[in-house]
Design brief:
The complex is a heterodimer of chains A (253) and B (337). With 253 residues, chain A is mostly helical. Chain A is 57% helix and 10% strand. Chain A is built from seven helices and six strands. Chain A has helices spanning 3-26, 31-44, 58-73, 78-101, 116-132, 135-160, 175-198, and strands at 48-51, 54-57, 165-167, 225-227, 233-238, 244-249. In chain A, helix 1 (3-26) packs across helix 7 and helix 4 crosses helix 6. Chain B has two domains: 2-73, Ribosomal Protein L25, Chain P (Beta Barrel), CATH 2.40.240; 77-284, Zn-dependent exopeptidases (Aminopeptidase, 3-Layer(aba) Sandwich), CATH 3.40.630. Chain B has helices at 2-19, 77-81, 119-132, 151-163, 207-224, 259-276, 286-310, 314-335; strands spanning 25-28, 34-38, 47-50, 54-62, 65-73, 94-98, 136-139, 169-176, 185-188, 191-194, 196-201, 229-235, 247-254. Chain B has an eleven-stranded mixed beta sheet with strand order 2-1-5-4-3-12-11-13-8-6-7, sandwiched between helices. A two-stranded antiparallel sheet of chain B has the order 9-10. The chains are: A mainly alpha (253), B alpha/beta (337). Chains A and B meet through helix 1, helix 4, helix 5, helix 6 and strand 3 of A and helix 1, helix 4, strand 8 and helix 7 of B.
């Protein structure tokens, strides 16, 4: 590989890392957590877990799958969790429907205006955003649906035909992670544009968590006080059992 | 919102089968001559280099016809005198081969078969011919079925896995689905054979390098086995060619030819690739990679600009960043003894 080709690869990788970090930042993870997850994916991409004749990559499948479960578990309410799971299942079904009719290869009719890898992410992201109304939901839906579809089609393949196979061995560049990235970027563009047009976030049940009174985490049932000091928010919460927590809310409006 | 979503899904399900109708496109030049056929969805600006090295650009696509205009004649002789400069590590250069469409097969049997399709026999023949030329070949027999839209997602994992061996090229071996055997039928040294079509995608940062590589292959193929290359498509699409430089897709004939036809070509192709990838100095790929760097950086800059524009606090955050930095610098200076 020539030096310039290596430089091209390095710049592309750097861009993906920056994008990945920004995307994870939008899911509610802190900067450090996001960087940690990226590091895990990167390091994990060098390790394959052999399951029968299938090589399952740690960074390209296992860590992203854990991340989806973690983000679902971290959701502030059961409604958000159900919406997340629904988004994953519905997005996976829609992507399956599209991929059933179009093979995106040069031998069959396909859309060529966009690479399927990005198209699937965009579709899954939009569906998840509509259902979950948040960047985090879009990311969970985009990534989760492609992981689910990848695993399901591989199980089907192994049961019906067998043969050696790979799952997530592209590591950081695996289709599911790119779909998650596209989903969150698209949700960011749609969300920000929508909010900019209507002059601020919509109030009601779907009010962004960062603006909710207290933005109560899972272990605090009811938040009583929240006051804005400066950006980021300083939030004080008093739980039912009298626990008092004060923390900085890092989510931007 | 939910009802709208359900309506959208129903519309999508109803519309998909009609959109996915199988189509064969004729490529027609300005004089009305039919150049070739393809089922590849072409769009304006896509490029086709014919067997006789004429370069055509797609002008319009309507009613199953792709109108093209000749933009010039490509002089491939320079690729013979000045080969590509490939920096090969180790004593034996590695080449990766895989098959995205694991079901592809040829007549007289089923054109699509359960894993492994006959395309794996073509891959094996190519592997052996490359090994005879001194390459170490990593041939992945991974299964990427079902043959649907997510097959490229699955083969992406295989392609990336092959990249771990630092191959000088990665080849995705296919066969086409054109029902007219005459488009691909040829003979090599008196033997019935299948022509090979090279497909390079434009939707990735390696587009220039891959197109250059395709032209170099054609130059050497024409020199050794005239007429073995059907043509080169440089069209929209990616086919996982973003994953590394010199990642190409080869169509060994079409399903209405026989496996034997495809095997003849595959056995000859090792020598063609070997001449295209000589060890040592030669034509630099730098310009292609530079253009890739330019595009990636441009996408990064434009993306950041859009992000800042749509984010209400985007620009302010940057301003604050500056202020915070100056503040912390000042504080440090004060803290210094």
């Amino acid at each position: 590989m020539t030096t310039t080709s290596t430089a091209l690869l390095a710049i592309t990788a750097l861009l993906v890392i920056i994008l990945g970090h920004r995307a994870l930042d939008r899911t509610g993870l802190t900067d450090k957590q996001a960087l940690f997850v990226i590091g895990l994916i990167w390091a994990g991409s060098y390790f394959d877990l052999p399951i029968g004749r299938v090589s399952v990559n740690i960074g390209g499948f296992i860590i992203p799958a854990i991340l989806v479960v973690f983000l679902l578990a971290k959701a502030s309410s059961n409604t958000e969790r159900v919406r997340g799971v629904l988004a994953i299942v519905i997005s996976a079904l829609v992507v399956f429907g599209i991929s059933y009719f179009f093979d995106f290869g040069p031998e069959n009719p396909s859309f060529t205006f966009i690479d399927p890898m990005y198209l699937f992410g965009a579709i899954a992201g939009v569906i998840a955003y509509l259902l979950g109304r948040s960047r985090r939901a879009a990311f969970i839906g985009g990534l989760g649906s492609m992981l689910l579809l990848g695993a399901a089609s591989l199980v089907y393949q192994q049961v019906t035909e067998g043969g050696p196979a790979n799952l997530g061995t592209a590591g950081f560049f695996t289709g599911a992670l790119i779909a998650g990235l596209v989903a969150i970027i698209l949700a960011e563009v749609i969300g920000e544009t929508r909010e900019m047009i209507q002059g601020g976030p919509e109030k009601g049940d779907n009010y962004p968590t960062g603006l909710k009174k207290g933005n109560a985490p899972r272990d605090v049932e009811q938040a009583t006080h929240a006051f804005r000091v400066t950006e980021p928010f300083l939030v004080m919460e008093i739980g039912d059992n009298g626990d008092v927590r004060v923390f900085l809310e890092e989510n931007k409006i | 919102m939910k009802s709208k979503l359900i309506l959208l899904l129903i519309l999508l399900i109803v519309a998909l089968p009609s959109l996915a109708e199988y189509k064969i496109y004729d490529l027609i030049d300005e004089k009305g001559n039919k150049l070739t056929q393809t089922s590849l969805e072409l769009t304006t600006g896509d490029v086709y280099i014919s067997a006789d090295n004429k370069e055509y650009e797609v002008v319009s696509v309507e009613n199953g016809q792709v109108k093209v205009r000749q933009t010039g004649v490509v002089d491939l002789s320079t690729y013979l005198t000045m080969p590509l400069d490939i920096q090969v590590g180790g004593s034996k250069p590695v080449i990766g081969i895989y098959h995205t469409h694991s079901d592809e097969s040829y007549l007289p049997g089923e054109a699509s078969r359960p894993y492994p399709g006959e395309i794996y026999d073509v891959g094996k023949a190519l592997k052996e011919s490359l090994e005879a030329e001194g390459f170490e070949v990593k041939w992945s027999q991974a299964n990427h079925n079902p043959h649907d839209g997510t097959a490229y997602n699955r083969s992406r994992d295989t392609a990336a896995k092959l990249l771990r061996y630092n191959p000088v090229t990665l080849i995705d071996v296919h066969r086409d689905a054109i029902p007219d055997p005459n488009i691909y039928k040829t003979d090599v040294n008196g033997q019935s054979a299948a022509k090979v079509r090279i497909v390079t995608g434009k939707q990735n940062q390696n587009r220039t390098n891959n197109f250059e590589f395709a032209k170099a292959i054609k130059a050497h193929a024409d020199n050794n086995y005239p007429g073995i290359i059907e043509g080169i498509f440089w069209a929209k699409g990616n086919y996982n060619q973003d994953i590394g430089p010199r990642t190409i897709l080869l169509e060994f004939g079409t399903h209405v030819l026989t496996l034997d036809d495809a095997l003849v070509s595959a056995r000859k192709f090792g020598a063609v690739i070997a001449q295209t990838l000589p060890q040592g100095g030669g034509r630099s790929e730098r310009s292609g990679a530079r253009s890739g760097i330019f595009w990636v950086l441009l996408i990064g800059i434009v993306g950041t600009a859009i992000f800042l524009l749509i984010n209400k606090n985007g620009l302010e955050a940057f301003k604050n960043l500056g202020e915070r930095l100056t503040h912390s610098l000042r504080r440090r200076r004060r803290e210094k003894p």
